[in-house]
Amino acid sequence: MSQLPNRRRPSIPWHFLYNIAWKHFGASPGSSDPEKDIKDLTDLARDMSAIFDFETYSTFDGMILTSSNFYRSILDRILYDELFGFQQWQPKVASQVFSSWLKNLEKAGCVFPHASREEWETLGLLLIKNSQISALTITHPSEYSTYALSTARVVELFELLAIPLTKLNKGYALPIDTPHRNSPYFPLFKISGELYALPPRGMAARALFERIYKLLRDAEVDDLENRMGKALEHMAAEAVQLTGHPPAYFARAYRPAGQSHRRAPLEIDLADESDEHIFFVECKKKQLTNDARAGNVLSAAVDLASAFLAPLIQINRHESQLRAGGIRFLNGQNLALNGRRIQRLAITMTDHGSMQDRMFIRAFLVGLWGATFVTVNGKHQADVDRVNKKLRSVVDGITFLAEQDGGKFENFLKRYIGASWWLSIDQFTFLCERTRDLRIASAPVGSLIFGTGDLMSEIAHCARMGLLKPA
User: Fold this and answer.
1) In a domain, 75, yes or no
2) 3-state helix, strand, coil in the chain (%, to 5)
3) 5, 83, 390, 425: which has the highest count of C-beta atoms within 10 A?
4) Which domain of life is it from (predicted)?
5) How many Å apart are CA 132 and CA 60, to the nearest integer?
6) Which of residues 55 and 221 earns the better pLDDT score?
7) Angle of CA points 292, 293, 297, to nearest 5°
8) Alpha-carbon separation of residue 434 from 352, 418, 422, 447, 471 (angstroms)
């Protein structure tokens, strides 16, 4: 830090402190000087995070990733998120993302347990509305009764959504104690009787999703994961429509040249076009698992491969067909390249923290080019093989696309990385809502990097400095 021209202090790990505070929420106050004690607490937490050294203090940090430093780099990001990163949906679009998820899940054939989709939506939207942007809300079930929901019914649903304070974050003491941190998975914390605490809006909305999704899994809803995938595709299409028109191609199937009719055709989740660009969007519902959040680097690598590399592999296939002469869909539509640039978007249901950081994605694709991971423990071989297979597929796909492009490989790879983005559905919805141009929504900050490790923080920095692309 002493070598940097504009030195700054290490950040306060608010996420860690927030969860420690919930663990002790019911404790009797014993401080004689709360103001001094809070300052001492934040200073101690700041010193702790500085010792761990997970923060970046320069935009050059993380630019180089190799197989030899991969483990440390992933671990740093996992523990960075545990210290600083809140699991949330963007507050400005939380209500519409929540409603869109429920409605599209129902359209996909999902039957909701414990309550109808309308009941879950009514209560969920009221909870989101009553929550505050950056403060807790103490609430009671009687505040949520409507013509469609009696107070008694609200009490029943509150019990399903809440966790007692005595069980909140029990056993959580260190950043590696992620399995004991359960606050992100409940939108309500039961204080006593029928008195509840409601987290800030972004966290409450995300927790509503997490809790209802858990109730769906517990109820063993038929074919739930496929229905979740279909719902996410429709949510992405609705986000695109916020820019002024629906996607030009949605859930369209085609057969590559020479493919046997015995094989299933390929399918594009959604694609759009303008005079200058073609946009491919592939959706994966894959979430960051608790094992990954707890510091299991292999689990994190598997999650990254499934959430980001898998969509890239699918997009590479579509792009290859497009460059080979265009795509003729089975419904008669045609998509031709016509010299346009290609923008690639991988959309996941929830964010994966700082692994979505632009600098990390660039370093990951370049630094692990041609790398192969090995394990000395046979029980991990299947996971290692899965990651290696996806890495090889991405490398082979990009190499073939560069050959089709005909220019210098280095130039193509640079353009490819700059035009490949990974967003969560709430981030994508937020970005689409503020513009009538999908190009701006799909690449909001261009190549600007502030080194925060968080895409939305990068966007906020750009907005404050007047550097955000005009809507």
Assistant:
1) no
2) 50, 10, 35
3) 425
4) Bacteria
5) 36
6) 221
7) 35
8) 23, 21, 18, 19, 6
Name the amino acid, one letter, at 5.
P
- The β-bridge relationship of strands 195-198 and 277-284 is unpaired
**47, 188: one domain:** no
In a domain, 225, yes or no: no
Q: Which region holds residue 234: left if phi is over 0, alpha if psi is between -120 and 50, else beta? A: alpha
Q: How far apart are CA 385 and CA 22, in angstroms?
A: 40
pLDDT reported for residue 374: 87
The CA distance from 41 to 38, in Å, is: 5
In a shared domain, residues 214 and 257 = no
User: What phi, psi does 308 have (nearest 5°)?
Assistant: -115, -45
351 domain residue, yes or no: yes
pLDDT tens-digit map of 249-264: 999 999 987 788 888 8
pLDDT band at residue 448 using 50, 70 and 90 as cut-offs: low
Q: What are phi and psi of 171, to 5 degrees?
A: 90, -5
Structure tokens at 171: 């056993």
Could you give the number of structural domains in the chain?
Answer: 3
Q: DSSP E strands: which ranges in 374-426?
A: 420-424
Same domain, 391 and 353: yes
What is the DSSP secondary-structure string of 123-192?
HHHHHHHHS-SSS-EEE-GGGG--SSS-HHHHHHHHHHHEEEGGGTTTT--STT-GGG--GGG-SEEEEE
Rg (C-alpha) for the chain, rounded Å, is 23
251 phi/psi in degrees, rounded to 5: 50, 50
168 with 296, same domain: the answer is no
Same structural domain, 181 and 312: no
315 by DSSP, 3-state: which? helix
Alpha carbon distance 272, 102 (integer Å): 25
Q: What is the pLDDT of residues 172-201, one digit of tens each?
A: 998 888 889 999 999 999 999 889 999 999
Looking at the fold, whether 213 and 254 belong to one and the same domain comes out as no
Contacts of 240 (CB under 8 A, 6+ apart): 246, 247, 270, 272, 281, 432, 438
Q: Are 315 and 410 part of one and the same domain?
A: yes
CA angle in degrees (0–180, nearest 5) for 238-240-242: 75
Give residue 294's domain range: 247-464
